[in-house]
Amino acid sequence: MKTKRIIASLFIAFFLLAGCSTNASEKKTTDKTESSTVEKISDSSSAEKKQSPKKKKIALAGTYYTNEGSTATVEQLSDQEWKITYQVSEGEMTATFIPDWQSKGADYQSKTQMSKSDGDSGFKIDITAAASGEIKLTMSDGNPDHQMTFSNQKPKVTADPVLQGDLSTFEGSYSNDTTEKAIAESGFTLNGYTPTNYYQNQTTVFPGISKSGEDWIYWAGSSHAHYKMNKNQLPKKTNGYYEVTFLGTNAIAIEGKELVLTLVPSGVSGPDGKTSDENRIFFDSDNQESLREYHDEWWKAYQSKQTETDLDVEAILTGDFATLAGTWKNGEGRTLTINADGTTDNQEKIVAQRSEPAEDGISYVSIMPINGGGGAAIALYKIGATNPEGDQSDTTRPRIIITQNSGSFPAEEYYYRQD
Length: 419
Prior knowledge:
Helix content: 10-25%
Number of helices: 5
Strand content: 25-35%
Region (Disordered): 26-53
Signal peptide: 1-24
Radius of gyration: 43 Å
Shape: elongated
InterPro entries: DUF6287
Protein name: DUF6287 domain-containing protein
Keywords: Signal
Structural class: alpha+beta
Distance between the termini: 156 Å
Largest sheet: 8 strands, antiparallel, barrel
């Protein structure tokens, strides 16, 4: 009986110990579960804190592109501040900004003020960070012409060939009213060319863009300066027009010297604020000089103005100098003003010399000093009349030659009426 009581006591003790152990285990499990729950809540709170839009960190550093081919660079200055560097027509521009992120579904957006290096405080930068990984930066002051949009995704296809260095759309000769007026006033003999050369566009007077092999060439015209497009610096597009860098290739252009031309497409407002239906080229540091596309037969406008009054040779030979009156100028820059009474601005007078044409078929009058002394002859060429000994003049206009002898005269010696 005593033995049975001992066994019963041991069984009860073992049962109590087992119960205590189970309670402890259950308590430990409960404590661990509660601890795990606290950690999860804490982690969740932390995650929410990390994902708070305003404090979200998005890596913006890198190169950004426009559809036109321009680029911008973004770099991080501090934990919150960033800097963007990009090009405008005036040169390199920088600006700093601090994003203020707001969640928009799976995307994030920020729109904050920019601090630009030129002091313009009217610009804001609008950033969209898409879940796809694309980041777009739009800088604007509210004026659509000033807005620039960049993306961290490089354009797959550039639709604009000019930005790839293809100047085909600007290929050809160029001119302006100043150049054409100077040529007309020279009697179409400027730089030693003949009127025929000008009428058939057989001169090197006019600037132009052309392709030679793999190179795009800019010929500056009468200056004979020759340039080649810099392949290491592709054209840039600003406000709808292009800035193209050329390098001098001959001594006149100064070999290796940089020349930046502004190429303005038709229908686009240029640096002068004007819009034309023709392509234009602007040059010099201030873009003050400009050229337009070359016009075939441009000379007709000047010719028609200056052929209204022909020489009445028969009247001149009888002393009526009305059709000879006016200011005459030759290609060498010399001028002679003849008055209706036959006097000139050089204290000379016109005297009818022959009543019949000379043997060469051309009529002459004399020009002599009023106070006496030796003189010269003036050959009179009506419209259509040609020098039988060789004619280098514009036969569609009245002309005169001041000479001592007949002969074939250089184009620049012929005088043409200026008024």
